[in-house]
Amino acid sequence: MSKQEWPLYEVFVRTRSGLSHRHAGSIHAADDQMALDNARDTYTRRSEGVSLWVVRSDRIVASDPAESAAFFEPAEDKIYRHPTFYDVPDGVENL
Amino acid sequence: MNAEQTLIDYTLRLADNALILGQRMVENVAAWPELEEELANANFALDFLGQARMLYSYAGELEGKGRSEDDFAYLRDEHEFRNVLLLEQPNGHFGDALVRQYLFEAAYVHILGALVECRDEQLSAIAARAIKEVQYHVRHTSKWLIRLGDGTELSQTRVQQSLHDVWRFTGELFAADDIDIAFQETFGGPDLSAVAALWRTDVAAVVSEATLVLPDDEWMATGGKQGRHSEHLGYLLAEMQYLPRSHAGATW
Fold it and tell me: CB distance A38–B43 less than 8 Å?
């Protein structure tokens, strides 16, 4: 008997103290509502969260690892993009 | 019947319902078709066992004879159990177990709703805790019923059969006897005819969304609440009670 796997969903949990949702893992589910239930039963059993997001994994647009040099490396030598690059002149208040 | 005895009897019925359904669901642990659903089933089973523990402890306290929760669960015989017949029915397939749980909890959630408002402080506190668990169960099982009913031709046929198979056990949920009536009058417990009306509205809505047909109310089986059980309960108890009865006081 052939068995078709249910689609994969990524689960994001916002913890009690956390400000934003963080990736917790993934689950399988046949539809969106089932995904929410399964995420609840899999990732919040030990009161890990107060809010849940689920999204089908195939709907996430991800950067291509092959392009990571072009994507991320140019940022590495732009030290002027960090606030620590700048000296704060004496006498500036409220900064 | 004095008020104290009414409260003990009523509490034990609630406890037995939770334990027997919990045990039936435990039998399905490691047998469910998907990992996520497996976790949900085990979580739900533990919710019921947790409710049973609180209720048995309270019954033991009220009774004042030093019986512990384990004494109630493991050292009573079949005729001493007061769970409804619906819950001791065999698991069958996924749809059977789902329908059994849904039909019970669709009523249980309204019974708990009334118990939260009852005049016994401890039962009200236990109900307030349990109702949150049960509301989620109902959400989960009703969506599954809709999925199976409104799914494929095969899933619809099978789950419709599941509904027919256990329908005759649903009447007992609302058949008020002396204990139900005394508990309602003395402690402000649930009015089972009101619960029945709410249940029917909820179940009819889910069944219709599931494109299924509500079975006709024909002959209804009763007796579980009075200790007259179907042949299935004995086997369930034999498995559940074997260890504590063979090795009294065993711990791990």
Answer: no
Pick the CATH number of B3-212+224-246 from 1.10.760.10, 3.40.1060.10, 1.20.1260.10, 1.10.443.10: 1.20.1260.10
Chain B: residue whose CA lies nearest to A37: B140
Q: Which residues contact B169 (CB under 8 A, 6 or more apart)?
A: B84, B85, B86, B89, B220, B221
Query: Touching check for B132 and chain A: CB below 8 Å?
Result: no
Both tokens of B190, joined, read 């649930």
The CATH number given to A8-85 is 3.10.20.520
Reported ipTM? 0.77
For B89-137, write each residue's pLDDT tens digit: 999 999 999 999 999 999 999 999 999 999 999 999 999 999 999 999 9
- Residue ranges of domains in chain B: 3-212+224-246
Cα separation, B105 vs B223, in Å, equals 19
Nearest residue of B to residue A33 by CA position?
Answer: B143
pTM of the model: 0.89
